[in-house]
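Residues determine shape. Next comes a sample protein:
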Amino acid sequence: MTDAAALAALAGRHLDLISAPFTLPRSRVLVFRSEDGVRVHTSEYERRLSDCRVLDSLVVMDAEGEELPVADVLPGKVTFGRTEGRDSSRFARSTTSGDSRSLSERSDETKRVDPPSTSEAEVTLTFADPSTLSLGGPAGSRVRLQHPDGRAEEHPLERGIRLHVAADRSVSVEPGDHTAALAATDRIWSDWFAKCPLVRDDLQEMAAFCWWVLGANIVELPSLGDARAIVPSKIGYVGLWQWDAYFIAVGLRHGDPELAREQLEIAFRFPGADGQLPDVVHELGVLATSDDLPESDRANLRRAGSQIADPSAPVPLTKPPLAAWALRKVLEAEDAPDWAREQLARVIRSQEWWFSGSDLDHDGMPEYGHPYSSGLDDSPIFDGQLPTAAPDLGAYLVRQDLEIAALLEQYEPGADVTRFRERAAVTQDLLLQMWSSDRERFLAYGGGEPQLSDTIVGLMPLLTGTLPGTIASALHAAIDDPSRYALAWGLPTVAASDPDFSAERMWRGPIWVNTNTLIAEGLEASGYPERARELREQTVALVVHGGGPHEYFNPRTGQKADRATTAFGWSAALFIDLAVGLSR
């Protein structure tokens, strides 16, 4: 068994067809477990799975007419068959923590547990191409398809059949070479897992699953030709969000730097005339102002009582300025000078927009004009009036100007970087005005009024690496305070002692892998490398304990929060980035 096959088998241990569906890179077809077999959906921008039904059930039967359950799942195929003699804990393992055995030792177990090929007594499901499923099985086996309109049909599987999913979600059935489909799908996944980073033994299984997540979340966006966008999740987040693209590229660089560069290219491809980068690039265009918001988002905002659901004038929508940070990290993996210069020009224009187009009270410090532009939409810092001046934005702007200066010095020798360094110093002075010496934390200001919630945005100034020692020490102490941020599984997004803390409500308490990662980097930049490593170890342990790279985690239990999305792109990518760093 090759390393790629072993890694694919390790990832397969987490493919439960519930939190992780069966799919293929570039495909919009998703297969989930159902009570009597599996069901099939498509993945579409701003549409719920319930609105994207393809087959309400796909039930496999043997020659005696007995229904065959799902017996095994690998990235390249779903096997239906008898469960006698199989590893009954197969799917239970998807929620257990990793072990300390080496890849070769676990590969040996994989050889024993996962059948290397299809048995004559088994039926398998795979892909023939991104929009076509393929089924095959022994003589007498059949499949029953239940369509959303109530129609049912049965087909024999001995010669193999293909189910083509059309753009309108209708399904056509035709004969097809199932053996060829299995081989083709296996090649796709083998090529993908051949690029999977090898990390510390106790992290390798989860790293393999996270690598699967990144491959599974590749889609094609028709408006971009054959460009490959890695979406946050095929379950609910079908588009390339600017912030997500940065975090995804940072993890992806370790195995596929070319694809990592492609994520940044897409994020940078559609600047406004003033340089503003859009919040989202999706299959219907871009989301760059409140005028572009889909009605579902407006309805959610209205239900929350937000005054910005229907603004009187368009509000720009973007994401925090971490573009240069991501650009630098991707270039560290594989240098590309010409490409770097082209992208850097767009990053600089975006940075200029923040100061010219988002300094809404004209005091020199840009603000968030909309919660969506922060990435932390539900944070209590937005409970006040807009616009919101926030310490995380100030920190990102300081860091970005310094990153731009360093990148220019590397790729444009002789360029004058004085204005970027000088602006970083001015921005930091304004950022320090948000420090409350009484409360010993940074405060956000909504409509000019202080927002007193103790949130993780107040720790982000560590990223500058240039805070006064007393302030950096106070933030370090907050991170180590068990009543505030030093919880068992990492840093809550709102301090546990704060009245606004909620263990389940998105940005009001749950742990996010990206905020943990940024704070760890801030600790290291501010002179606390040991504490940074502890937080990184804590974060990868959280993902392993929680059973996968979920969108966010309950900070009390370390498990997936109830409403969090599973198989989430940036959590997967940053787990890989952290695992690689911790394995050196």
User: Anything to note?
Assistant: The longest helix spans residues 337-357. The chain has two domains: 3-193, 201-582. Residues 85-118 have pLDDT under 50 and may be disordered. The longest strand covers residues 53-61.
